[in-house]
Write a structure and sequence with these properties.
The structure is a single chain. The chain is mainly β and 164 residues long. The protein has a domain of 102 residues: Sandwich (Jelly Rolls). The protein is built from no helices and 12 strands. A 5-stranded antiparallel sheet has the order 1-9-6-11-4, with no helix packed on it. A hairpin with a 2-residue loop joins β2 and β3. The protein is globular and about 50 Å long. The termini are far apart. The mean pLDDT is 92. Catalyzes the epimerization of the C3' and C5'positions of dTDP-6-deoxy-D-xylo-4-hexulose, forming dTDP-6-deoxy-L-lyxo-4-hexulose. It catalyses: dTDP-4-dehydro-6-deoxy-alpha-D-glucose = dTDP-4-dehydro-beta-L-rhamnose. Its EC number is 5.1.3.13.
């Protein structure tokens, strides 16, 4: 398969991070937004499962990272999130790089976060916000029989991964 990746609106200082703009199609009935297209994403990042979470204003999720799993987040609103990314992959050409970007209602994006990149997000808006994730691995493996692939940093007071 010849994957024709979209032109990304915003480059990232972190290798393999992809910010994909999400376009809304509006008409008299409301709107539609394509969250995932098989033909626009590298097959290594194709979702194996999906979930939607709601995060209250001021709440932070993460920081954490995965050993094998990549995440495919979609921030479309109805709030704004500040997304934090840290490249913790020792073999990456951007090891140690950090990126902070806002995404959501005013700037809807899909975001590919490869394994080994520490990530967190905070709802910086004034209303509940939704986030879609299409992970490329099953949470806890087939029928939830395996260990969870997460390295959690949020409870470590000495973590270098701080969310302001």
């Amino acid at each position: 398969m010849n994957v024709q990746l979209p032109k990304f609106a915003d480059p990232s200082p972190i290798h393999d991070i992809k910010w994909i703009p999400i376009k809304f199609f509006n008409d008299q009935r409301g709107w539609l937004a394509e969250l995932f297209r098989n033909d626009l994403i590298d097959p290594n990042f194709h979702p194996q499962m999906a979930y939607v979470s709601m995060t209250k204003p001021g709440v932070v999720r993460g920081p954490h990272e995965h050993v094998d799993q990549a995440d495919y987040f979609c921030f479309i609103g109805p709030s704004t999130f500040r997304v934090y990314l840290w490249d913790a992959r020792k073999d990456s050409p951007t090891f140690g790089a950090k990126e902070v970007k806002e995404a959501g209602e005013a700037g809807p994006y899909a975001l590919i976060v490869p394994a080994g990149v520490v990530h967190a997000y905070k709802n910086v808006g004034d209303k509940d916000g939704w986030v879609f994730n299409g992970a490329n691995r099953l949470y806890a493996g087939w029928l939830k029989q395996d260990p969870v692939d997460e390295i959690r940093h949020e409870k470590d007071p000495n973590t270098p991964y701080k969310v302001e």
